[in-house]
Amino acid sequence: MRHRSTIRAGALLGLAALLTACAPAQTDTTGPGADSMQGTLRVWLFSEVDQEPKERVVDDAVAEFEAAHDDVTVEVQYIAVDSRAERFQGAFNDPSSAPDVAEYGNTDLAGYVEAGGFADISEELADWDAYSRISEDVAATAQVDGGTYGVPWFLGVRALFYRTDVFADLGIDTPKTLQDVVEAGRTVRAEKPDMLGLSSGGAYTYGFLPFVWAHGGGIAEEQGGSYTAAVDSAEAKAGIDLYSQVLSRDVCPPQTCAQMDGNESVQNFIAGKAAMTIGGNFNLNAVNDSDVAEDTAVVPLPGTEPGSVAPAFAGGNNLGVLSGTDHRTLSAEFVKLLAGKKYQQRMYEAMGNLPTLTDVQQDAAAADEEIAPFTETLEAGTRFVPVTPSWASIDAEGVLPTMVQRVASGDASVDKAADDAAASLDEALGGE
Known about the structure:
Elements lengths: L16 H5 L17 E8 L5 H17 L3 E8 L4 H10 L7 E5 L3 H6 L7 H5 L9 H4 L3 E2 L2 E2 L2 E6 L1 E6 H7 L7 H14 L13 H10 L5 E4 L2 E4 L4 H13 L7 H4 L4 H9 L5 E5 L3 H5 L7 E4 L12 E2 L1 E7 L6 H11 L2 H11 L2 E2 L2 H10 L4 H9 L1 E2 L7 H6 L2 H11 L4 H16 L3
Parallel strand pairs: 1-2, 1-3, 12-15
Antiparallel strand pairs: 3-13, 4-5, 6-13, 6-14, 7-10, 7-11, 8-9
Helix pairs in contact: 2-15, 8-10, 9-10, 19-20
Keywords: Signal, Transport
Pfam family, one: SBP_bac_1
Family: Belongs to the bacterial solute-binding protein 1 family.
């Protein structure tokens, strides 16, 4: 398996409550100077653990942009992910301190739009050919209430990692369905009690949700601009029930796994303590650098029927234009340059970021077999969390992990836990 540079996980979850509560920025976007074609274009991008490759690509894009625009200087600042809520809140409330263009996590967007922070750039994207090569479900991660507030820049999706040596030793076939995944985990645990059959914890929301989505269930349903909880549907409960079988003594004992999040789930696999895990394309580097690299294979997480793929969460980052910018046209042009084919390809080569343009995805999969399971997962269709500012508090309060953990611990039946979680979701959503 080929080594690539370390990347930061795509999904940037949770928006601070203080951000969603702030008032819309009071900005006059009309009149002289509202759309200047000269001056300094300010750009915020997220800092990375290994940032130099990202900077080299961005620097080249900046040089190209400046060469094509007289009297324009692009100034890029790299900001910490952990302090993004405070930084964006300040920018929304004081446009003079705000960037013109910014990278943001897609689960943060609904709160940012409620705060009036990002511009709807639907018109600027309407005649951009590359935009048509972003699938509808991926494009939706930058959309709120019919508006488009950016361009999906890169994605993070998850697939099934498994130990080929363990499967061969025990005569286990590659799982064709989610039920097969659970049964394979049981076989491993029975024959190798020192290993976890499938390392996937009770606090691993994006490891658990594909089980719900594959059975036809969901988190919440949107109708007429309002959300209603859906985790108490029969379909969702079927997925919860199957995942609860993972969190059992037969596969991944609750005392070990009930509180595990995604990072811990994958770390068990990397450490050789598990026969399977649900990991992302962003975990490939760590697996490649581990002792289990030569005995690892990756396939799309299967669905409920042979040949199907369980829908994965489409985590990732977008590029958007701040609503207070006085360089709107330049800002949209820079977004299209950095999110276009040339620089998506360059960012993939430099950082391993999974592209959002389908043709770049196909090129990447053809050139690198490691990425193929993730592009196949994308092609099969992805899902997203409810596009509402309330998701930040729902995620922070752990409504879904608590539901799963209650079932795993024996504190509640699937029906009781799902019904209680639905009530909590409806209260948080508040008729949005």
